[in-house]
Design goal:
The protein is 36% helix and 14% strand. About 2% of the residues have low confidence. It is globular. By secondary structure, the protein is an alpha/beta fold. Strand 2, helix 1 and strand 3 form a beta-alpha-beta unit. The protein has a domain of 137 residues: Flavocytochrome C3, Chain A, domain 1. The site of flavin-adenine dinucleotide (FAD) has 41 residues, from helix 1, helix 4, strand 8 and helix 11. It comes from Streptomyces olivoverticillatus. This is Succinate dehydrogenase / fumarate reductase flavoprotein subunit. Keywords: FAD, Flavoprotein, Oxidoreductase. Its EC number is 1.3.5.1, 1.3.5.4.
Length: 646
């Protein structure tokens, strides 16, 4: 029997970003004892980096906004591949989640009449993003943390222990979801990053809220935590990932200096009037309006400019097209030799707003460019280019309950969950997604746990815990001894090669031959990753942490490459050079990844063969009342003739 510290809770939430914290608050409010585990310090999750705002159709700036318009925009942005029930729930519930945040103490920017201010963003018909300058994520996390502290204070009064029903385990990494022989969730296995000590937390319900996968790519806006852990944990537990080919390349990341390449330049810069120009000074986005969006966007610079002050009688400028369109346009301009000196294009706000207003509305951007690139954005343009930003694909979940398909007791919410955003996410729709589905995941995880009789609580098998421990120790040569250490691979080298390969071969523009090459490369990297070796001890050892994260990045990268190879069309975040058109038949198809050998124990998950099996699954037809929200002409661009006539 392994000697591992073990605790018992009702619900375990893996991840302390917006989705995880909202889930934990809900589970605790339902009376459950809830443990939250996070890799970084509490409060340092990725959500903190969110800049532009939370999308919710409160109608504070334009009263014509409502959930139906938000739903329509979200479906258009995702090119109709969204799980429509998720998009519906999201649009309906987002305003309540924002008002709830305000009630819990969030201090949003205000309109002149004192309402929560809302700003324009790409793909949103009306100003819809509730914001706090360009530091919205910070306020969101601060508010959720404050709510958690207030719940803990209640528990202090009631039980004399502030962590009696809600406890955060920070700087801990989960490496396995544990299950019973009967395939129910039984808890998680992980390690403390500082001490290297292993732990088990037993719980009948586990909510994955681990965020995205950006660290598999070389240029990314994502932080070190985004190694696809939750995606991999779900796969390894027997769950499925849906539509992993859809990776969002945000059009505007910094391109210079090299040390900060990829850091995000918020879309608010364009929402607040910033324009994109090429090296010839041309506002090139007017040349890139696709047919499906043509009637919704301005035809001339004059019309686009008038829209900022008179949106009811003018159409929006094409700088505010959905992100996939803008990223492809920038990529094409640079390829055509009309890029900026450092391989991007120019984003200019300095000629569009007074300096004082720029400093007030975009304080972080002003600071970021001044400090990192010595560029004063109130006086000169920024240089920007695409950066890997967000993954639309993720754990296949039930839209109402956030339960992961096929694994009783497993739930997923936030960026790790798939479906909601279809083939492309609109800016601002992630923060609202975290709150809407974080709450739902917490609620249904709590109900699931509460429904189990105490005696029927699932228990993890000691053998599985031993295997999880052996897997985690392998980089120290625990399995192969001195012989395997002799041939040890450096985890940092493997990571760099993975990032290079994914960026070059499965990046913003994709081709069949290159993706096949990537898959061969991934098989080689996986075999080498088995020999990833580290020196020293388990006490804070970043090389060891990376060696363990590699399993997740390789698994998730294989899902992305396999699905991208299979989908022979271009849609949203997936662009095929060899299949440039969107194909209405493909809209009916979800690509679903599962582990090839579902009985895979930790010790056998490094097969030299591909680990992932890919299936095509037909998308469920849109409900009639939701279809009726669109004009027939518009639907004809996305739906097949058969669907339109049925
Ligand atoms: P996160 O906030 O990333 O939290 C993930 C948590 O999981 C972390 O606590 C992490 O430590 C933990 N974790 C991960 N793996 C493990 C493991 N193995 N064990 C234990 N813990 C683990 N979206 C918007 O809607 N509006 C915006 O304005 C906006 N701006 C953005 C700006 C930037 C620079 C970036 C990068 C993204 C932005 N986004 C925005 C996207 C949005 O911020 C993210 O999609 C969202 O915050 C993800 O939240 P989450 O709760 O799913 O994950």
């Amino acid at each position: 029997m392994p000697q591992v510290d073990t605790q018992s809770w009702d619900v375990v939430v893996v991840g302390a970003g917006g989705a995880g914290l909202r889930a934990a608050i809900e589970a605790r409010e339902q009376g459950m004892r809830c443990a939250v585990i996070c890799k970084s310090l509490f409060g340092k999750a990725h959500t903190v980096m969110a800049e532009g705002g939370i999308a919710a159709s409160m109608g504070n700036v334009n009263q014509r906004d409502n959930w139906q318009v938000h739903f329509r925009d979200t479906m258009r942005g995702g090119k109709f591949l969204n799980n429509w029930r998720m998009a519906e729930l999201h649009a309906q519930e987002a305003p309540d989640r924002v008002w709830e945040l305000e009630a819990w103490g969030a201090v949003f920017d205000r309109t002149a009449s004192g309402l929560i201010s809302q700003r324009n963003f790409g793909g949103h018909e009306y100003p819809r993003l509730a914001h706090v300058g360009d530091r919205t994520g910070l306020e969101l996390i601060r508010t959720l943390q404050q709510k958690i502290v207030s719940l803990q204070q209640e528990d202090e009064e009631e039980y004399g222990d502030h962590e009696a029903r809600l406890k955060v385990f920070q700087e801990c990494t989960v490496t396995r979801v544990l299950k019973t022989a009967g395939d129910r969730v039984a808890g998680v296995f992980g390690y403390e990053r500082e001490s290297g000590r292993f732990f088990v937390i037993e719980a009948p319900a586990v909510v994955l809220a681990t965020g995205g996968i950006g660290k598999s790519f070389k240029v990314t806006s994502n932080s070190w935590e985004y190694t696809g852990d939750g995606h991999a944990l779900a796969l390894l537990a027997g769950a499925r990932l849906v539509n992993m080919e859809f990776v969002q390349f945000h059009p505007t990341g910094m391109v210079w200096p090299p040390s900060v390449k990829g850091i995000l330049v918020t879309e608010s810069v364009r929402g607040d009037g910033g324009v994109l120009r090429n090296s010839e000074g041309k506002r090139f986005m007017f040349d890139y309006i696709p047919d499906v969006f043509r009637e919704k966007y301005a035809e001339s610079e004059d019309e686009g400019d008038r829209w900022y002050t008179d949106p009811d009688h003018n159409r929006r400028p094409p700088e505010l097209l959905p992100r996939d369109e803008v990223a492809r346009a920038i990529n094409a301009e640079v390829k055509a030799g009309r890029g900026s000196p450092h391989g991007g294009v120019f984003l200019d706000v300095s000629t569009r707003m007074p300096a004082e207003e720029i400093r007030r509305k975009l304080p972080s951007m002003h600071h970021q460019f001044k400090e990192l690139a010595d560029v004063d954005i109130t006086a000169e343009p920024m240089e920007v280019g695409p950066t890997c930003h967000y993954v639309m694909g993720g754990v296949e979940v039930d839209p109402d309950t956030a339960a992961a398909a096929g694994v009783p007791g497993l739930f997923a919410a936030g960026e790790v969950a798939g479906g909601m955003h279809g083939s492309n996410r609109l800016g601002g729709n992630s923060l609202s997604d975290l709150l809407v589905f974080g709450r739902r995941a917490g609620l249904y995880a709590a109900r699931y746990a509460a429904a189990l009789e105490a005696a029927a609580r699932p228990a993890a098998s000691p053998a599985d815990i031993e295997l999880a421990e052996a897997e985690a120790l392998r980089p120290f040569g625990a399995e192969g001894g001195a012989e395997s250490r002799g041939a040890a691979e450096n985890p940092y080298t493997l990571h760099q090669e993975l990032q290079q390969s994914m960026s070059d071969l499965v990046g913003i523009i994709r081709k069949e031959g290159e993706m096949q090459q990537a898959l061969r490369g991934l098989a080689g990297l996986r075999a080498r990753a088995r020999r990833a070796g580290v020196e020293g001890h388990r006490q804070f050892n970043p090389g060891w942490h990376l060696a363990l994260d590699l399993r997740n990045m390789l698994l998730v990268s294989e899902c992305v490459a396999r699905a991208a190879l299979e989908r022979t069309e271009s849609r949203g975040g997936h662009t095929r050079d060899d299949h440039p058109a969107m194909d209405r038949q493909w809209r009916r198809v979800n690509l679903v990844c599962r582990l090839a050998d579902e009985s895979a124990e930790p010790a056998v998950t490094d097969s030299a063969l591909g680990l992932v099996r890919l299936e095509r699954r037909e998308t469920p037809p849109l409900r009639a009342d939701l279809l009726a929200l669109f004009e027939k002409e518009e639907l004809a661009k996305y739906l097949t003739d058969e669907e339109l006539t049925s």
